[in-house]
């Protein structure tokens, strides 16, 4: 009974917190379905006085561009996440094994990449001069493949939740390194895979800067870059409006409701991904896996 | 787990193949041969085929490639002896700074590059990213010289020329736009504005405020303290350093802090008063706010901004603004309150430069020169292909039947960026004499040069101070401009912060350099 009395308070706090997360979404959604002139005249509002679906209609008519960008974002995210999980976990697994001779050196190497980065220019040079991946999807996939932090999280998971005796026993039963990794380790590490998978999904899906740096070809613009681009163009042109050519440069900023409608469309997949991953966030996987 | 094994193999092989494919196919575009050049002609001139890469800020155009091909056909037909092709490489406005800095730092091949003082021209020169153009211009730029020879001074750094100014209007006019409908409704007397003083707008704003609920009398963002103050009162040098031209003798070259003039205080107080009285919209500083849209929605009466350049402009003379009326979707009057003097800064606001990474600067200069002489080439660049992207109606450019600016495939308004703007067609709806008006206006402007026309300040010795001053200003300037801060209270605070940031040092440095320049030019 004692415990139950604290429940409402927790409930209220959590509800307020969820509201704080939901209200901005609501506002964006409402502007996206509001009448443009009404927004211009009265500003943002949680319940616009006049509704119109013109923005979505416009996006629908311009669907080619948006769908293409959607495709780019989706394929980059999909390929990126799968490959990234594979490489990250493979590396983390190797680092988690005490028998691995280069363990210390490689861990240190990973730590270095977390502390220092080469900087934008060397990054650009390597990608354009050595790898020649500019204007290809590879340019969007490679940068997110391995994050030092993710490797360390996985390594910790492997060391803490997979008993070494389990690996020993599987090897006694005749499994090689790869067999051990694929049949024993991976199935046991679904929680960490789901967690890191979610991280990388979000970072791939939301990444626009890489597109800005490496992509010139309009056909390969990702959805987020398309969105960022319209906003950046608008704000940049506004800052220069008083400097150069307000009289000659005709600047058209994209309509408020269209920007918000694009944002709504871009949010979509991420909202859907999370519930599907939730079931993997379970504990107690390893209980009973080792014969006592 | 079998499927996992399989799929990972498939995936990694997929990734590998795409890496290989990218490695092979990534660079095809850069070295495509100039297929249209006629072989015979090249041999006679002895020039190897060369592709001139033009980098300029613009929204991406769907038909960029088609227009580029058309330009190349035209070049091959008309100037076979030059044996060059062009590659149009537009870069989005929003990505411009990041991208061009990277391209420059990494030495990517660029030939002609659009640049301007507000796009980091100074830094590009300092970093050594641009080539000096004096000799190239003398050799290959006769048509540039024909129209621009008097205006090279401002783009010189360390005695060498680094940018070629686009031939266009040499200044602007600032003033106030008024919603004509409301002017007629209340029979406003516009002759009051003959004074050129923005103060004389006040009675009108008051009338609108009292009688038209729901209409903002003065729509911001575009404030009296912005272009209007500096252009009417100052010959700006850098950041805060300027010469006060109001109430000082014509040979007075004292550098002052532009925020300390009595006029600044006056205007700041006025704006603050207007803001308090509710004449200015409260959301003036919201990013993304567009004054024209407010007017379009029927929610605004007036705003202070740069004017259209039309025939017979003079201070206080009201006329219908053609572009303004288009943008606002209703008849707009414009009344100039100031007509620019010839300013050094304006000459560096739109230029083309030649990048250090150009493999054949001579050819780049030849191409740039063509844009100052060849109307057809310029029209291809600005309006696209005739019949596809535009049609001519009575000598003006119009969209083809049934096309809109969105779906025509090639539509941009960047005539102001390149070449000799006076060669261009006008668009339907514009004054057919637009460019004659420009030429007339240029005479007006150039007959009245600023006291320090041609003087270029070298910011190097006070680089850090300039950045600190910028940061000090950030906290206050916007608030003062929009009238949200009380200048009595905030202005002294800002000046104090500027002092701490090194304002005095900047002003002393400006004075020192200016005195040296004056001595050099026998003005003192």
Automatic annotation (TrEMBL), chain A:
Pfam family, one: BPD_transp_1
One of the protein's GO biological processes: transmembrane transport
Membrane topology summary: Multi-pass membrane protein
Coiled coil feature spans: none
Compartments reported by the entry: Cell membrane
Domain ABC transmembrane type-1 positions: 70-266
UniProt superkingdom: Bacteria
Keywords of the record: Cell membrane, Membrane, Transmembrane, Transmembrane helix, Transport
GO CC aspect terms: plasma membrane
Spans traversing the lipid bilayer: 9-34, 69-94, 106-125, 137-158, 178-205, 258-277
Main location: membrane
Family affiliation: Belongs to the binding-protein-dependent transport system permease family.
Protein name listed in UniProt: Sugar ABC transporter permease
TrEMBL record, chain B:
Residues in the signal sequence: 1-21
UniProt keywords, alphabetically: Signal
Key word Signal present: yes
Pfam families xrefs: DUF3502, SBP_bac_1
Presence of keyword Signal: yes
GO BP, one annotated term: intracellular signal transduction
Entry's Gene Ontology molecular function annotations: phosphatidylinositol-4,5-bisphosphate phospholipase C activity
Top-level lineage group: Bacteria
Gene3D superfamilies membership: Periplasmic binding protein-like II (3.40.190.10)
Record-annotated PI-PLC Y-box domain positions: 400-463
Protein name: ABC transporter substrate-binding protein
Organism annotation: Paenibacillus borealis
């Amino acid at each position: 009974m004692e415990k139950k009395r604290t429940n409402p308070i927790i409930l209220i706090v959590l509800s307020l917190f969820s509201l704080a997360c939901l209200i901005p979404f609501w506002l964006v959604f409402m502007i996206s379905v509001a009448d443009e002139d009404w927004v211009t005249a009265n500003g943002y509002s949680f319940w616009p006085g006049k509704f119109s679906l013109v923005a979505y209609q416009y996006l629908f008519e311009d669907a080619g561009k948006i769908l293409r960008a959607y495709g780019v974002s989706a394929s980059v995210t999909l390929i990126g996440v799968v490959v990234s999980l594979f490489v990250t976990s493979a590396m983390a697994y190797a680092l988690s094994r005490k028998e691995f001779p280069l363990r210390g050196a490689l861990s240190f190497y990973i730590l270095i990449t977390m502390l220092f980065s080469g900087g934008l220019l060397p990054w650009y040079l390597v990608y354009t001069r050595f790898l020649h991946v500019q204007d290809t999807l590879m340019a969007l996939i490679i940068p997110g493949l391995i994050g030092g932090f993710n490797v360390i999280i996985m390594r910790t998971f492997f060391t803490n939740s997979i008993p070494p005796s389990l690996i020993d026993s599987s090897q006694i039963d005749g499994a090689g390194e790869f067999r051990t990794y694929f049949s024993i380790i991976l199935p046991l590490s679904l929680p960490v895979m789901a967690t890191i998978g979610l991280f990388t999904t979000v970072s791939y899906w939301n990444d626009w800067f890489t597109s800005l740096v490496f992509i010139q070809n309009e056909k390969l613009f990702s959805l987020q870059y398309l969105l960022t681009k319209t906003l950046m163009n608008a704000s940049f042109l506004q800052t220069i409006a008083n400097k150069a050519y307000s009289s000659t440069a005709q600047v058209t900023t994209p309509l408020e409701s269209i920007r918000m409608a694009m944002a709504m469309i871009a949010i979509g997949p991420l909202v859907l991904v999370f519930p599907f991953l939730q079931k993997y966030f379970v504990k107690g996987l390893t209980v009973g896996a080792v014969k006592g | 787990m079998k499927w996992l094994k399989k799929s990972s193999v498939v995936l990694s092989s997929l990734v590998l193949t795409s890496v290989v494919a990218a490695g092979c196919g990534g660079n095809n575009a850069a070295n495509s041969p100039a297929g249209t050049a006629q072989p015979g002609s090249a041999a006679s001139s002895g020039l190897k085929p060369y592709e001139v890469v033009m980098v300029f800020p613009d929204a991406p155009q769907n038909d960029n490639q088609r227009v580029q091909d058309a330009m190349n056909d035209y070049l091959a037909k008309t100037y076979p002896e030059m044996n060059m092709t062009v590659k149009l490489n537009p870069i989005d406005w929003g990505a411009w700074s990041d991208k061009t800095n990277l391209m420059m730092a990494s030495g990517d091949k660029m030939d002609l590059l659009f640049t301007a003082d507000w796009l980091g021209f100074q830094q590009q020169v300092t970093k050594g990213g641009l080539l000096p153009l004096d000799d190239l211009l003398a050799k290959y730029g006769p048509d540039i010289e024909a129209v621009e020879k008097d205006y090279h001074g401002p783009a010189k750094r360390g005695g060498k020329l680094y940018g070629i100014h686009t031939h266009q209007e040499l200044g602007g006019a600032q003033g106030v736009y008024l919603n004509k409908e409301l002017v007629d409704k209340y029979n406003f007397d516009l002759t009051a504005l003959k004074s050129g003083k923005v103060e004389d707008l006040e009675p009108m704003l008051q009338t609108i405020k009292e009688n038209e609920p729901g209409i903002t009398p003065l729509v911001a963002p575009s404030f009296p303290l912005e272009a209007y103050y500096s252009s009417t009162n100052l010959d700006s040098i850098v950041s805060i350093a300027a010469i006060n031209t109001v109430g000082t003798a014509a040979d007075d070259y004292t550098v002052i802090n532009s925020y300390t003039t009595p006029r600044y205080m006056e205007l700041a107080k006025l704006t603050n008063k207007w803001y308090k009285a509710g004449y200015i919209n409260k959301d003036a500083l919201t990013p993304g706010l567009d004054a024209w849209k407010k007017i379009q929605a029927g929610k605004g009466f007036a705003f202070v901004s740069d004017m259209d350049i039309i025939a017979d402009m003079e201070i206080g003379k009201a006329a219908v603004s053609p572009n303004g009326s288009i943008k606002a979707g209703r008849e707009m009057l414009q009344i100039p309150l100031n007509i620019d003097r010839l300013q050094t800064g304006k000459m560096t606001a739109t230029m083309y430069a030649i990048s250090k990474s150009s493999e054949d600067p001579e050819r780049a200069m030849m191409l740039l020169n063509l844009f100052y002489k060849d109307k057809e080439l310029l029209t291809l660049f600005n309006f696209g292909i005739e019949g596809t992207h535009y049609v001519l109606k009575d000598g003006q450019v119009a969209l083809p039947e049934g096309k809109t600016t969105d779906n025509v495939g090639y539509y941009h308004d960047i005539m102001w960026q390149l070449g000799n703007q006076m060669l261009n067609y006008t668009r339907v709806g514009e004054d057919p004499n637009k460019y004659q008006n420009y030429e007339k206006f240029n005479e007006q402007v150039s007959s009245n040069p600023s006291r320090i026309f041609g003087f270029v300040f070298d910011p190097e010795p006070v680089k850090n101070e300039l950045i600190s001053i910028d940061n000090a200003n950030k906290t206050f300037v916007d608030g003062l401009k929009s009238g949200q801060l009380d200048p009595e209270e905030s202005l002294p605070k800002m000046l104090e912060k500027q002092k701490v940031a090194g304002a005095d040092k900047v002003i002393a440095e400006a004075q020192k350099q200016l005195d040296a320049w004056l001595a050099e030019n026998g003005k003192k």
